[in-house]
Write a structure and sequence with these properties.
The chain is of the alpha+beta class. It has three helices and four strands, in the order H-H-E-E-E-H-E. The protein has a four-stranded antiparallel beta sheet with strand order 1-2-3-4. Strand 2 and strand 3 (57-67) form a beta hairpin. It starts with 7 loop residues before the first helix and ends with a strand.
Length: 90
């Protein structure tokens, strides 16, 4: 997993809750990164360009992780539980 990610509450203080809510509603895509370890995780992300609360341009990225074995067992990814693990503001 990526480290030093922001929580939803921390990200909302920087870009506002409207942008975080809109981002959470977007479809995510696999990043192509596998996170090794005892539970092999596949990383997914979605991003949204906008402005922070100070009017500066930024991109907000939300990250999700799924077990590789769960992905292999289902054809419809909507059946998986998608919980945001954290946010990054670039």
């Amino acid at each position: 997993m990526k480290t030093n990610l922001l929580t939803a509450e921390q990200a909302e203080k920087i870009v506002g809750d409207k942008m975080i809510s809109e981002l959470d509603g977007l479809d995510c895509e696999p990043t192509g990164r596998l996170m090794g370890g005892s539970n092999d995780l596949v990383e997914f992300s979605a991003s949204l360009e906008g402005e922070d609360l100070e009017g500066e341009s930024c991109t907000v990225v939300v990250y999700y992780y799924q077990l590789e074995s769960d992905l292999e067992e289902t054809e419809d990814l909507s059946y998986l539980e998608w919980i945001a693990e954290g946010y990054e503001i670039i």
